[in-house]
Each structure stands twice: as structure tokens, then as C-alpha cells.
């Protein structure tokens, strides 16, 4: 009775509606505009004044067909994509015109600019999430009840694979199953970090292998990182990513320091469009988290998928591969907890690579009344008790 839990934005918003993606994106746009002057050229070309966020949205629309004003991954991810593209262009320029230092420098400066824009956007996103996901007691108790019900129903190993940048799930796990819990932070590897003012902060390095303590049966994997994960972008190919406490990130204004360029470290998160997301998860520490996710999927009798849209190509690929490798008689029992009619059974089957020729998906169950009381439903009872 091992279990893999995959949690998307719907888990966080079920217990904290302020974390809805559209609300976060609107606030990101407001803060970007509040921290930047309007831009225009009305004297020479009679152009209307435009906000920085509007100009960023124009760039994003050229790279992604989705609405950048409703999804911060589309808005900010465009500049992550541009940075990667310019880096590839720089390599091409080095090959075709190795002696053209002016061109190489111009491309390097363009990549630096794209990084600064994406850093500003990412810092705003994570700062808003950190502010809105503080573990208020009245919001944390229902989530802790949900986590406790999961831990009680499954005596085997449980892996929580979390797609959210916030620490709400982590806090709920610490509040209920702390003695049985471990994550990618390696408590044996204490690190001290000094900022530009000489202030020293203590943190913990992330694991470089899936060497979890044998005494723990519950594991948390942040598949796309967290606002508490940080790294030094100047040290390429390094496997040193550290985790700060959530209060440190908030109280010491780490994310504001990213925008003011007084902090050398950067958040270790995957915040990009689908194409670049697939590339970014191949690098550490996300590759390690995905490796653990895949191993858990293959060894679990039950999969619980909560508040996930089934629109993330990288996540769907992991689910598809794990399901495809399972024998018909050993297929996992899958429960999808969502609110409303989306995603449909057909959409989930397609995401998991399940075709009509393979017969009915009788291993797949839905609970469409939301997360909060899901563990009290017949759907939960029938699924968790099935073997």
C-alpha cells in the first residue's frame, strides 16, 4: 500500500483562495508597473505611454498563444525562453563569426537583460506567494486534516510530489507527520551564506542523491522548486542548492534584494513555458526530484492526483511512462480530486496515454467535489480500501 500524491495549484487554492493563478498574475502585473515608470516616445513619434507589464505582455504574446495577463508562467516564461534562445544564438555566433567580439558582447548583454527581466518577474511572483501562503492557523488546520487522513490510510511509503512554489503543504506535513517526514534538504549539510552587508544566514544544502533516511516513510519532493530554494547562478554546473526557512526569505526581504541586485543568489524554481520547462527539469535539483517522482510512481499501488490540470507536458510524461511500464494486473488505482467537470475523463486518459484499444479505464476514479472534504467521501473510501 505505497502511495504517490501529486498536488497542483488546486490543492493550495482549496485552502487559500488568494493563491489562484489569475489573482497572482494580476498582482504581479500591478507590482511590476508600480516599480517601473511608464515608457513612451510621444515627443518624437507620438506613441502613447505604455506600462512595463504591457510591453512584457506584448513580448509574451509573440512566443505563446495563451493570455499572459492571466498566467504568470506565460508572462514571465517568455523572458526565460528569450534568455535560452539568445544563449543558443551566442554559441551560433561564436561558430560562424568567432572573431566578432562586438556581436558576441551584444548577445551577451541581451541575454543579461532577458535574465534581469525574468528575475524581476520571478521575484515578484514568489514574493506574493510567500506573503499569501503564510500558515495562518485557520487555513492550515483543514490541510493538516487532509494530510493526516492520507497518512493514516496508507501504512506504506508515501511520496508527496508538489508542483507549488509555496510551503503550505510542507508546513502541514511538519504539523502532522514530522517524525516520519523527509524532503530533499539534507540536514547533515549545514551551510552559511553571507550577504553583501556581511550578514550571515544559516541554511541547509539539498541532497545530490535520493539518499533518504531509512527511518522515514513519508517524503516531499518539490518538483518545480520552492521560494525557499536558492542557488548561485554564477557557479555553473554546481550541485549546490540550499534551502532557507520560509520566514528567512520573507523577513529578510530576499526577493526584494533580487530586484535591487544586492543578492547574488537566485530562487531555484522552474518558471517557464512548456518547451523550456521540459529542458529545465533535466537539470539539478529538478532532475533529482523527478527521478524520485518516477521511482515512487512505479512502486506505488495507489496514485492520488489533487488539484492538477493535466496540462504540464513534463509531469504528464512521467505519469505516462510509469503507467505504461505497469502490467495490466498491477496497474495503480488512481483517484483524481478536482472541483467541477474539468479535467474530463477523456482529457485525463489522453494525458496518461490511455487509448480506447486498451479498454475501459476502470482503475481511474474521480472525486469532483473539491479537496476539503474529499477524505470523508465514498470515492475516497472505495479507492483507499481497494487493492
Describe this structure in words.
There is one protein chain. Strand 4 and strand 5 form a beta hairpin. The chain has helices spanning about 10-15, 20-35, 40-45, 50-65, 70-95, 100-130, 135-155, 170-175, 245-250, 255-260, 275-280, 285-300, 315-325, 345-350, 380-385, and strands at about 5, 160, 180-185, 185-195, 200-205, 220, 225-230, 240-245, 265-270, 300-305, 335, 365. The longest helix has about 30 residues, at about 100-130. Helix content is about 45%, strand content about 15%. Helix 4 packs across helix 5, helix 5 packs antiparallel against helix 6 and helix 7 (about 135-155) crosses helix 8 (about 170-175). The strands form two sheets. It has a seven-stranded parallel beta sheet, with helices on both faces. Residues about 40-50 have low confidence and may be disordered.
- pLDDT < 50 runs, ≥5 residues: 39-48
Number of strands: 12
> What is the tally of helical segments?
15
* Strand line-up of the largest beta sheet: 3-6-2-1-10-11-12
Mean pLDDT: 89
Report the principal-axis shape.
Answer: globular
| Rounded Rg | 22 Å
- Termini gap: 8 Å
The topology string of helices and strands comes to EHHHHHHHEHEEEEEEHHEHHEHEHEH
Amino acid at each position: 500500500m505505497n502511495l504517490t500524491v501529486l498536488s497542483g495549484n488546486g490543492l493550495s487554492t482549496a485552502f487559500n483562495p488568494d493563491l489562484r493563478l489569475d489573482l497572482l498574475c494580476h498582482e504581479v502585473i500591478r507590482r511590476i508597473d508600480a516599480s517601473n515608470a511608464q515608457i513612451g516616445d510621444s515627443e518624437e513619434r507620438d506613441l502613447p505611454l505604455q506600462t512595463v507589464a504591457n510591453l512584457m505582455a506584448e513580448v509574451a504574446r509573440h512566443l505563446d498563444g495563451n493570455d499572459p495577463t492571466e498566467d504568470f508562467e506565460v508572462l514571465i516564461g517568455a523572458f526565460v525562453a528569450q534568455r535560452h534562445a539568445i544563449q543558443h544564438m551566442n554559441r551560433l555566433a561564436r561558430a560562424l563569426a568567432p572573431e566578432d567580439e562586438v556581436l558576441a558582447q551584444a548577445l551577451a548583454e541581451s541575454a543579461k537583460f532577458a535574465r534581469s527581466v525574468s528575475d524581476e518577474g520571478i521575484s515578484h511572483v514568489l514574493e506574493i506567494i510567500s506573503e499569501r501562503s503564510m500558515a495562518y492557523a485557520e487555513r492550515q488546520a483543514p490541510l493538516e486534516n487532509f494530510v493526516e487522513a492520507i497518512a493514516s490510510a496508507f501504512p506504506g511509503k508515501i511520496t508527496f510530489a508538489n508542483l507549488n512554489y509555496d510551503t503550505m503543504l510542507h508546513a502541514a506535513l511538519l504539523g502532522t507527520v514530522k517524525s516520519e517526514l523527509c524532503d530533499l534538504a539534507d540536514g547533515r549539510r549545514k551551510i552559511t551564506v553571507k550577504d553583501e552587508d556581511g550578514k550571515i544566514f544559516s541554511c541547509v544544502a539539498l541532497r545530490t542523491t535520493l539518499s533518504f533516511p531509512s527511518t522515514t516513510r513519508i517524503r516531499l519532493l518539490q518538483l518545480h522548486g520552492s521560494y525557499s530554494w536558492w542557488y548561485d547562478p554564477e557557479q555553473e554546473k554546481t550541485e549546490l542548492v540550499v534551502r532557507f526557512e520560509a520566514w528567512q526569505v520573507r523577513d529578510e526581504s530576499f526577493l526584494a534584494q533580487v530586484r535591487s541586485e544586492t543578492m547574488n543568489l537566485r530562487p531555484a524554481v522552474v518558471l517557464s513555458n512548456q518547451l523550456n520547462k521540459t529542458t529545465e527539469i533535466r537539470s539539478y535539483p529538478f532532475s533529482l526530484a523527478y527521478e524520485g517522482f518516477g521511482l515512487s510512481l512505479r512502486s506505488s499501488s495507489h496514485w492520488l492526483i489533487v488539484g492538477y490540470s493535466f496540462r504540464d507536458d513534463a509531469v504528464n510524461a512521467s505519469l505516462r511512462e510509469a503507467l505504461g511500464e505497469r502490467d495490466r494486473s498491477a496497474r495503480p488505482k488512481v483517484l483524481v480530486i478536482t472541483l467541477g467537470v474539468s479535467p474530463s475523463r477523456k482529457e485525463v486518459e489522453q494525458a496518461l496515454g490511455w487509448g480506447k484499444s486498451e479498454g475501459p479505464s476502470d482503475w481511474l476514479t474521480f472525486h469532483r467535489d473539491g479537496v476539503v472534504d474529499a477524505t470523508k467521501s465514498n470515492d475516497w473510501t472505495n479507492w483507499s480500501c481497494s487493492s
